[in-house]
């Protein structure tokens, strides 16, 4: 059976997958700068005899065509970019690029998909249909590499009936995976605000228009957008992580600068909230004698896992791994540009467990101590290969 063949091959290539992951981890590159990463992936595709097309500068798309008759197509996606974080792990494969780190597992995603490509290439006589491999740049930075690749036609010629994405999850033990049907991850918007006033001596506030006090009122009032305007059944998050009032103990500055994020899972409400936030902030500033530049950089949409596809994919995962190793996921208010695929095609984005408490591999993504339990690669490659051939009707 093809399942047993896939499982055997996944064990055979395990060491190569680990080696590829460690190479990528040692040589991380930031979003839109994945030049050497792209070249490395291209070289591996060349070794497999696969032709590929470049998209969005550093992105790569390759096709594996099964030799049995079928016109079905499934796309498999891996992201390749790293983050502007200085790695704190003392490991042999530690980042060699100071201030840049694979702290979100994209090295694991890329090496796993290369492993999946090897398995499917070796078994192409055993299945029908076409597998489209998407090696995507710039997941971590707006506007997101997914949106650029879609605009350049990554989901056309041929058009996939399903798009699958796999992402590491340090909350789940290695050897297990997680699924959630329906809405899974939030949209994300970046908020940039400058509150203008009239600065001066702190001992003479009557002569000034204090932007610090205006900002305090704006920050407090804006939370009502979530607590009083949002539907309680639809998750929303509004957070401000940067507030700069560059005065002194006795100096009121001329302006205060803010940066924040807004996240939700409803596009209609998302648009309404943008209007409410801007109107509220500008109105408060004006009423207190100041002014406010309120700018929203629209980010990724929310991610939705198509119900039927996700149910079927989960069932195939249970068949491959055993039901005890397939978990339910809760909604996750982080964002992912895989959401762009999910908005235009039937998609399923699932989680690969990478936690190992006994080895201290427990850190969250986007932290300097993030790492993955490499035993996860014993299932990551074969599982994605199995999911692909099952979605192709084999």
Could you explain the architecture of this structure?
With 394 residues, the chain is an alpha/beta fold. The model has no long low-confidence stretch (mean pLDDT 97). The chain folds into 2 domains: 2-184 and 302-391, Zn peptidases (Aminopeptidase, 3-Layer(aba) Sandwich); 189-298, Alpha-Beta Plaits (2-Layer Sandwich), CATH 3.30.70.360. An 8-stranded mixed beta sheet has the order 1-2-4-3-5-16-6-15, sandwiched between helices. It has a 4-stranded antiparallel beta sheet with strand order 10-12-8-13, with helices on one face. α1 (2-12) packs antiparallel against α10 and α6 (211-229) packs antiparallel against α7 (267-287). Helix content is 35%, strand content 27%.
Describe the structure concisely:
With 394 residues, the protein is of the alpha/beta class. The protein has ten helices and 16 strands. It has helices at 2-12, 14-26, 35-47, 106-122, 145-151, 211-229, 267-287, 307-321, 339-344, 377-391, and strands at residues 52-55, 59-65, 68-79, 128-136, 162-173, 177-179, 182-185, 189-196, 200-201, 236-244, 251-252, 255-264, 291-298, 303-305, 326-328, 347-355.
């Amino acid at each position: 059976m093809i399942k047993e063949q896939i499982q055997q091959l996944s064990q055979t290539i395990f060491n190569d997958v680990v080696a590829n992951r460690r190479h990528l981890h040692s040589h991380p590159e930031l979003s839109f700068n994945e030049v050497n990463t792209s070249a490395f992936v291209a070289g591996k595709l060349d070794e497999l005899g696969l032709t590929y097309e470049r998209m969005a500068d550093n992105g790569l798309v390759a096709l594996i065509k099964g030799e049995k008759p079928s016109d079905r197509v499934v796309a498999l996606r891996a992201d390749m970019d790293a983050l502007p974080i200085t790695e704190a792990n003392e490991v042999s494969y530690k980042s060699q690029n100071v201030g840049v780190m694979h702290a979100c597992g994209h090295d694991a995603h890329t090496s796993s998909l290369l492993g999946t490509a090897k398995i499917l290439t070796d078994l192409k006589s055993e299945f029908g249909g076409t597998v489209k491999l998407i090696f995507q740049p710039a997941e971590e930075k707006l506007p997101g590499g997914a949106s650029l690749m879609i605009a350049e036609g990554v989901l056309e010629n041929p058009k996939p009936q399903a798009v699958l994405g796999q992402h590491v999850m340090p909350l789940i033990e290695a050897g297990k995976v997680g699924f959630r049907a329906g809405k899974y991850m939030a949209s994300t918007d970046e908020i940039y605000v400058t509150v203008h006033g009239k600065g001066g001596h702190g001992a003479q506030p009557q002569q000034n228009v204090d932007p610090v006090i205006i900002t305090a009122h704006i920050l407090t009032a804006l939370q009502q957008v979530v607590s009083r305007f949002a539907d309680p059944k639809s998750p929303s998050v509004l957070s401000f992580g940067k507030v700069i009032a560059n005065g002194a103990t006795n100096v009121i500055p001329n302006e205060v600068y803010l940066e924040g994020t807004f996240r939700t899972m409803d596009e209609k409400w998302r648009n309404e909230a943008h209007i409410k936030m801007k109107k509220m902030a500008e109105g408060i500033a004006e009423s207190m004698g100041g002014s406010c530049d309120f700018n929203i950089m629209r980010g990724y949409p929310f991610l939705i896992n198509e119900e039927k596809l996700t149910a079927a994919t989960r069932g195939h995962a249970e068949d491959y791994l055993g039901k005890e190793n397939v978990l339910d996921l809760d909604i996750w208010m982080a964002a992912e540009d895989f959401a762009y695929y999910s908005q235009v095609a039937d998609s399923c984005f699932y989680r690969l467990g990478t936690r190992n408490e006994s080895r201290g591999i427990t850190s969250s993504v986007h932290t300097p101590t993030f790492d993955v339990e490499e035993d996860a690669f014993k299932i990551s490659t074969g599982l994605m290969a199995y999911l692909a051939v099952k979605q192709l009707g084999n």
